[in-house]
From TrEMBL:
Protein name, entry field: NADH dehydrogenase [ubiquinone] 1 beta subcomplex subunit 10
InterPro entries: NADH_UbQ_OxRdtase_su10 (IPR019377), NDUFB10 (IPR039993)
Chain ranges passing through the membrane: none
Claim: Magnesium is one of the keywords in the record: no
Annotated membrane topology: Peripheral membrane protein
Organism lineage: Eukaryota, Metazoa, Chordata, Craniata, Vertebrata
Length: 171
């Protein structure tokens, strides 16, 4: 690289950018509005937001892994204990949703196995088919024939009648 540069081809930028001179002594209204907005609206909102984020960072809660405590079954509630009835009903609904998801997951696994295996699905997916049969039978035994408006009380009565029939059949 040569020591002498061609100063005409590669001009050196000026060392300082010239500042435009003010022609008036009146302050710019845009600057005034921006400053007022910054101090009146933006600063308090930013302060509150950062304070809330600091409080939330201290105790993080993960809502996608919410765990409910198990409550007594409807058969364990005392007569007239409506709070216990309500909690048992909510627990029953959660259990029903979990059981529905279990059936759906097993069904999806069987569908994926059938898709993967193709014509050999009957011999290679026999385990998944048997598992789906067991899961759907258990779900049907517990929640079948309850309908959309089924609740914990009707489910309990259904299980009670099924147990009575099984005792009669055993004798």
């Amino acid at each position: 690289m040569p020591e002498d540069h061609d100063w005409e081809a590669y001009k050196v930028p000026p060392t300082r950018t010239p500042v435009p001179e003010r022609t008036t002594s009146v302050p710019n209204p845009v600057t005034f509005v921006q400053t007022v907005f910054s101090y009146v609206i933006d600063a308090p909102v930013t302060f509150v937001r950062e304070w809330i984020e600091r409080q939330q960072a201290k105790n993080k809660t993960y809502y996608y892994h919410q765990k409910f405590r198990r409550v007594p079954d409807l058969s364990e509630c005392l007569e007239g204990d409506y709070l216990c009835f309500f909690e048992a009903e909510a627990q029953w609904r959660r259990d029903r949703m979990v059981d529905q998801e279990i059936v759906e997951i097993v069904r999806e696994r069987l569908g994926a196995c059938k898709q993967r295996e193709g014509p050999n699905q009957f011999q290679n997916c026999a385990k998944e088919m048997e598992l789906l049969k067991q899961v759907t039978k258990a779900y049907q035994d517990r929640y079948g024939d309850l309908g959309y408006h089924g609740n914990a009380r009707t489910c309990l009565m259904k299980q009670k009648h099924r147990m009575i029939e099984e005792r009669k059949a055993a004798q």
